Amino acid sequence: MKHNFGAGPGILPHEVLKQAAEAVIDFNGTGLSLLEISHRSPEFEAVLNEAVALVKELFSVPEGYSVLFLQGGASTQFALAPYNLLPEGGKAAYLETGVWANKALKEAKFFGDVEVVATSKESNFTYIPKDYTIPADAAYFHITSNNTIYGTQLQEFPKSPIPVVCDMSSDIFSRTVNVADFGVIYAGAQKNMGPAGVTLVIVKDDLLGKTGRKIPAMFNYEVQIDGGSMYNTPPCFAIYVSMLTLKWLKAKGGVPAIEVENNEKAKALYEEIDRNPLFKAVAAVEDRSRMNVCFVAENPELEKPFLKLCDEKGIVGLKGHRSVGGFRASIYNALPITSVHVLIEAMQEFAEKNK
């Protein structure tokens, strides 16, 4: 058995993988593969409609918001958010908390002025800045809810006088959020919702159509809303697997139930890191991510031997990002707490061998 702590594409529920594999051969008894049916067919339209309905139900999406399934990953949304929200000659505000936040603000500069209200770059993004002022004259305030590379996470979302745009790629559906507090939420599916290839966007309708610029159809949220996420051929398989994952989440009790599980997993792992003399957590305690647990060996020479032990125990995907080094345990929704216990036991065994 493998224990998949990979940062993304991340672990998916086994039952979802099994259903998806069957659909590749014969989708719902049609005699056709899901990969070859028309996206305009009643069978696929039912899939898309169910996926949208599940997003709205699981996240309690209020009236006045649209749910889109788009392509291009969250990286494309770095540009599409300002393209659709930032007026000609306008300004956007950004909180810089990691690589992806930095890439997002760089893309926004193509469309207007960007004010970085705060950054933790000087500490290699080991914490989330707290004391900053959000400029009321900006069109929106962009934040990244969870920083996959550095293992930090916004534990509370800021109160903002302007619409908040949030990249939730690595913690979408892992905890309860109030969608009404956001103007746009976007997330690449491949860390916590489905496979790579589809991106979820939840957008407040009354923010759109106010930039004063012409936007190409594929990049225009209003066009995509009018087309029901099918202005062009959508990523049918990725949407289907995401729909299955959302059904799995609903059956488990929804976001509140999975949040309890995620808190338990993170608590157990951080307690072992803090207790074990061979390891040290990277992120500031108050900003520790409950999705990506980043830690290092007190003695760097022990990193490779520990990874070797993990490999022997079926623990995969633990090597840290090159920006941080060490280890990164991504404990997404589908990772069972039993896998966390296997990792903890490996850490304890390693400590005994290296006293």
Task: Give the overall shape, derived from the CA principal axes.
Answer: globular
Structural class: alpha/beta
Distance between the termini: 29 Å
Number of strands: 14
Strand order of the largest sheet: 2-10-9-8-5-3-4
SSE sequence, one letter per element: EHHEHEHEEEEEEEHHHEEHEEH
The biggest sheet, with number of strands, parallel, antiparallel or mixed sense and barrel status, is: 7 strands, mixed
Mean pLDDT: 97
Low-confidence stretches: none
CA radius of gyration: 21 Å
- Summed up, the helix count is 9
Helicity range: 25-40%
Beta-strand percentage range: 15-25%
Structural overview:
The chain is an alpha/beta fold. The protein has helices at residues 14-25, 42-58, 73-85, 99-108, 221-226, 236-251, 254-275, 303-312, 337-353, and strands at 3-4, 65-70, 91-96, 113-119, 141-144, 146-147, 152-153, 164-167, 184-188, 199-204, 279-281, 292-297, 315-316, 327-330. The strands form four sheets. Strands 2-10-9-8-5-3-4 form a seven-stranded mixed β-sheet, sandwiched between helices. It has a three-stranded antiparallel β-sheet with strand order 11-12-14, with helices on one face. Strands 1-13 form a two-stranded parallel sheet. The chain is globular and about 65 Å long. It starts with a strand and ends with a helix.
What's this entry about, in short?
With 355 residues, the protein is of the alpha/beta class.
Question: Secondary structure elements and their pairing?
Answer:
Layout lengths: L2 E2 L9 H12 L16 H17 L6 E6 L2 H13 L5 E6 L2 H10 L4 E7 L21 E4 L1 E2 L4 E2 L10 E4 L16 E5 L10 E6 L16 H6 L9 H16 L2 H22 L3 E3 L10 E6 L5 H10 L2 E2 L10 E4 L6 H17 L2
Parallel strand pairs: 1-13, 3-4, 3-5, 5-8, 8-9
Antiparallel strand pairs: 2-10, 6-7, 9-10, 11-12, 12-14
Helix pairs in contact: 1-6, 2-6, 3-4, 7-9
